Amino acid sequence: MAAEKPTVTPMMAQFLEIKSRHRDALLFYRMGDFYEMFFDDAIAASEALDIALTKRGKHDGDDIPMCGVPHHAAEGYFLTLIRKGFRVAVCEQLESPAEAKKRGAKSVVKRDVVRLVTPGTLTEDSLLEARRHNFLAAYAEVRDDGALAWIDISTGAFHVMPCPLVRLAPELARLNPSELIVSEANISNWAELVPDFEAATTPLSRSSFDSTSATKRLQELFGVSSLDAFAPFGLAEISAMGAIVDYLEITQKGKLPLVRPPLRENVGGAMQIDAATRRNLEITHALSGGREGSLIAAMDRTVTAAGGRLLERRLSSPSRDVNLIQTRLDAIEFTLTNKQQSGTLRDMLRKVPDMERSLSRLGLDRAGPRDLTAIRNGLSQARTIEQTLNSSQVPTLFQQNMALLQGHDAIIDLLDAAVISEPPLLSRDGGFIAQGYDEELDECRKLRDQGRSVIASLQAQYAQTTGIQSLKVKHNNVLGYFIETTATHAEKMLSAPHSETFIHRQTTANQVRFTTLELSELETKIHNAGGRALEIEKRIFEVLKTEIIKEAPRIAEASKALAEFDLTTALADLAVGENWVRPMVDSGRSFDIQGGRHPVVERALRKQGQSQFVANDCRLTDGKDGAAIWLLTGPNMAGKSTFLRQNALIALIAQMGSFVPATSAHIGIVSQLFSRVGASDDLARGRSTFMVEMVETAAILNQADDRALVILDEIGRGTATYDGLSIAWATLEHLHDVNKSRALFATHYHEMTALSDKLSGADNATVAVKEWEGDVIFLHEVIKGKADRSYGVQVAKLAGLPAAVVERARIVLDALEKGDSKTKTSPKAIIDDLPLFSATPTPMPLQVEKGPSASDEKLAEILPDELTPREALQLLYELKALSGV
Predict the structure, then answer these.
(1) How do residues 473-514 score in pLDDT, each as one tens digit?
(2) Positions of CATH 3.40.50.300 in the chain
């Protein structure tokens, strides 16, 4: 007899069929009030979410693993899974169980995936950081051309730029996308192409990158016959943009977000900053990984989410356009000179909600009633702000943006009339449409909430019509609502003129029961009033959503303008609060900072209640060869790295269009910013600290041009002394002679200070210190000149090295320095001759502090004025004996 073939339940067969189409995602399978996962999905999800793993039925004779989460709390679970590298396919019920039963008693409810949740396609506020963009990017190559496109579907911002492969890593570091789409043809060697990219990488088929298909997708999306209306895009740019649109169609299941027309970025429009420099300077993220301790945390005084995101974009992409920078600085200056008006403007901006993200959710059909009020309140504030500012006196930047705040009266009035001031979060909760907006809705609500009073009113009407005051309208579960009167009055109701109105239903021993068409209709309305009211509200919601989407491009522009006002007033507030000044930015090569300060360190010192930050000057002057370099020497802990970083940050802050932390600043446009500061290894790729240092230095020397600003700290310290010195020496010469860059070069190799005599564009500077009783006091003051020593032993003592180690180091250092000065030979020759390196030396005894000695105690007892000569002589003998001499 043949073995019985294992059976699969219809529901499980449906799960397996849907799962087969989404193998790379966890399938959240909707069952009533829960999302359930089965098989391997359940095992993976239970471990990632730390929830119970159970079982449900059998498959091929084995228990089916199962776990589940409540559908109303699913967003929190999505976020956890996304952060752990998973993707989620959300499978919803497309019909009710009652509808399924119409097809047969055992029919399975129709289900299908309505959305793929991936890192780059999040829109919910609970899954996103309000002040950060969440970019989805795509890279495409067509022949020898490359392009990078990116979109934030939570705001609709869509950008593209030509991008050769060599520029890809720095651009990804600038954008920091959550997810990157690449052709499956390149996925195998992607880690080698962009080694520092840590976000999710998603391969798509080559057809998604086909430029012909991409053109059609983009034309359909934007409703145009030609993309030339936006910009003269190359094939690679069209390919990258088309891949993004294709991926959105896949993940959103046809419900595309409200995408703004693509903006083509100019490759040379922004200061170029590579990934290592961004990391070293801690522009948007501290080295610890969080926001606290970064430059953006020290500068962010914006009061709106959109303003915070704009600040992040500006800091990530400082401009190289002098006119644009001056326009932004003019706006800040105007804000500073009109403090009262600016204060009022800032107070109004605090009431502006995040319209950009509300618009996106409305377009994706994920919005709620509060998104309607966000649009209404944001546009209302925009109108108030526009009326407050005097367009004839404001600067150019304000004038440009004020025009975008006008013309929204119709949508404001519509939403004012339709939506209550504080609606619920979800449309299914109802109660968000204002009273008086829709007559049918008002009637349903009245019946739902005041059914008894409506029935009582009808009862009074019937009693008056018939003249029977004892007439009652009652209800039971069999008849529903009915009219009841005594048998005595029944004949009156059955005779004309009432017989046409009242319909006999039932006669009991003492009562006769009637109904009317009006009462039957009212009963039906009361019974369905709650559900009907909710249906009407949902219908009105859809109408309002449609009206908003019609105005979406103009609303998005208004939101963009409000963000500009927010950032400008925030930077003005920062300038006043932190005593920052307007920089002079031009197209020259000047770099003259007077009284410069590090904004992050200064803020940290203030928080800790420590001493004030010591401001320093930095003036890089071109030599006859075109370079301008400061060779900075001095001890560790003296502030060399802080000085290097602060000047790089001042240049960056100035070119984003902000005042700067200094008493004055004159900066010629910086085309590239390079930083090689700090030490770290990369064990995952087999790179030592020194190898990482050399790779980063090589990138700088191979790319820096004569408009770059380069800061280098301790080049060559990761290897032997002479190797390191020779590498540092050659690096400085290359920067001077070949790159001709403006640079700050910090080193402990004080032998290199002699280069200032050879290189016309190199000057020596040092960090001043003061020695006191063998210790070093850091003054944190940068002055012209050079250091002849590094004070390493003193710093080691401050760090807490054992006293014996510090003392031994002093002896070794003294021997090396004396030997060198006497013999004029190399340190290696001196080391070979010194016995202290030929055998292991005897450790120095620890110096332990003790109490007063016996001789000290004896001396304390002596009263010299009372001693005779003989007694004094005797005391000398006793003290000699006590001291052991």
Answers:
(1) 888 877 888 999 988 888 888 877 877 788 888 888 788 998
(2) 584-797
Percent of residues, the chain, with pLDDT higher than 90? 46
Condensed to tens digits (0 to 9), the pLDDT of residues 829-857 reads 544 554 444 444 445 444 445 566 777 77
Backbone φ and ψ for 687, nearest 5 degrees, come out as: -110, 125
636 is in an annotated binding site: yes
Amino acid (one-letter) located at 295 = L
Angular region, 446: left φ>0, alpha ψ -120 to 50, beta rest: alpha
Alpha helices in 188-321 (DSSP H): 190-193, 211-222, 235-251, 275-281, 295-299, 305-316
- In the chain, ranges of CATH 3.30.420.110 domains: 128-265
**Residues recorded for the chain:** 885
Is 637 marked as a binding-site residue? yes
Return the C-alpha torsion angle 315, 320, 323, 329, nearest 10.
30
CATH class, 321-408+551-576 region? mainly alpha
Domain 584-797: CATH class, spelled out: alpha beta
Is there a binding annotation on residue 851? no
What class, spelled out in words, does domain 128-265 have in CATH? alpha beta
Known binder of ligand: residue 316?
Answer: no
pTM above 0.85, yes or no: no
Q: Are 281 and 641 in contact (CB under 8 A)?
A: no
Topology (CATH level 3) of domain 439-529 = MutS, DNA mismatch repair protein; Chain A, domain 3 (1.10.1420)
Q: Is 73 annotated as a binding residue?
A: no
Q: Pick one of 3.10.20.740, 3.40.1170.10, 2.60.120.260, 1.20.140.10 as the CATH number of 10-117.
A: 3.40.1170.10
Q: Where are the beta strands (DSSP E) in 276-430?
A: none
Separation CA 351–CA 307 (nearest Å): 13
Beta-bridged to residue 28, according to DSSP, are: 90
Q: Report the distance separating Cα 345 and Cα 569, nearest Å.
A: 8
